[in-house]
Amino acid sequence: MSERPGTLYKAIGGVDVLRRLSNTFYDKTLADPLLAPVFADFSPTHIEHVAVWLAEIFDGPDDFTGKLGGHQSLLRSHLGLSITEPQRLRWMELMTAAVDKELPDDELLRRRVLEYFDWGTRIARDVSASPAGADLGDPGPTPRWGWQGLR
Fold it and tell me: Widest CA span of the chain, in angstroms?
């Protein structure tokens, strides 16, 4: 087997693949009775923002931090959503299906990406319990996720 690219971003195939992943995921999510209420304020720019966030998380360009407000902005977008554990688990089911459809057929790559989503959705669920406008303090820089998980 050939050596893997140094970053998950490169192994995934870049931001265009992450856009496809986001589109596939949100096509199902917005039609899902359990999840649609969480995305009541959804707009098409959400798909692009998710792709840019994931690119940065997986060691691609840092455009989410540079142009979209960084880690603080991402966390703040979840405030007041009151995400339940059943919603988080359904989110993971739909994202797993999207990963299986859109990402390269590489078991370790898919496992690492889904480990990030499991980790990140737990944080989103926890943050979503706080009211909109709550002070989150300084969450630090955007996390980075690699072949060994969180760095």
Answer: 49
